[in-house]
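$ ./design --mode recover --in tokens.txt
reading tokens...
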């Protein structure tokens, strides 16, 4: 082969190589522009194999690797955020249901867990404060009820003791003592009828006794006059 023929053959081979390289670069660039990263990566690799000395496909491959890493990290972040959101929302749903059902300890636990997942969210913090106020009010109400029950118990015991003492005195015909105790019992429980009835009974008995004494003393006085 003469020099001219060799030169033409070399030129034709170079032209074919250039065309193949440029075609690969074109398809790779287009794929990259469409974010078809695997396709672009494949064509840039092929182009780099065609022309190993060219820096452009190597730079684009590095760019794609960086982008793929970024996308992978973003996917991980998005997945983690999705899982966090789902867990947070599930806790809020559970807490809201417990709150509406007046199960404040359960609601408090779930709102606290939700707040730990998302410390910047104001909703669970607000609900926790609301629960604390409700629990404080319930504790106050319970204490008042217990105090009232204790006071009522003491009143009942004192009332019963006075009635027992009054009944014993009545049965022993110690009417003044009985009257005093029934009066005290009636003062403790003004709505109770029993001590009132006994006081009336005592008054009648005392009146009868007074009349009896008058009748007994009349003959004696007459005898003294005679």
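writing sequence...
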């Amino acid at each position: 082969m003469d020099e001219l023929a060799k030169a033409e053959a070399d030129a034709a081979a170079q032209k074919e190589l250039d065309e193949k390289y440029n075609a690969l670069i074109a398809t790779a660039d287009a794929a990259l522009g469409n974010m078809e990263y695997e396709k672009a990566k494949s064509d840039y690799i092929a182009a780099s194999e065609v022309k190993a000395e060219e820096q452009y496909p190597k730079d684009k491959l590095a760019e794609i690797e960086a982008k793929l890493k970024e996308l992978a990290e973003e996917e991980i972040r998005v997945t983690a955020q999705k899982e966090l959101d789902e867990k947070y929302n599930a806790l809020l749903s559970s807490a809201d249901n417990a709150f509406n059902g007046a199960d404040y300890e359960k609601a408090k636990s779930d709102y606290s867990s939700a707040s730990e997942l998302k410390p910047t969210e104001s909703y669970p913090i607000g609900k926790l404060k609301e629960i604390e106020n409700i629990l404080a009010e319930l504790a106050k109400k319970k204490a008042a009820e217990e105090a009232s029950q204790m006071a009522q118990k003491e009143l009942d015991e004192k009332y019963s003791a006075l009635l027992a003492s009054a009944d014993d005195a009545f049965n022993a015909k110690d009417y003044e003592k009985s009257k005093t105790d029934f009066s005290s019992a009636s003062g403790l429980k003004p709505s109770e009828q029993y001590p009132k009835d006994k006081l009336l009974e005592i008054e009648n008995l005392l009146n009868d006794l007074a009349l009896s004494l008058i009748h007994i003393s009349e003959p004696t006085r007459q005898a003294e006059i005679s």
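exit 0
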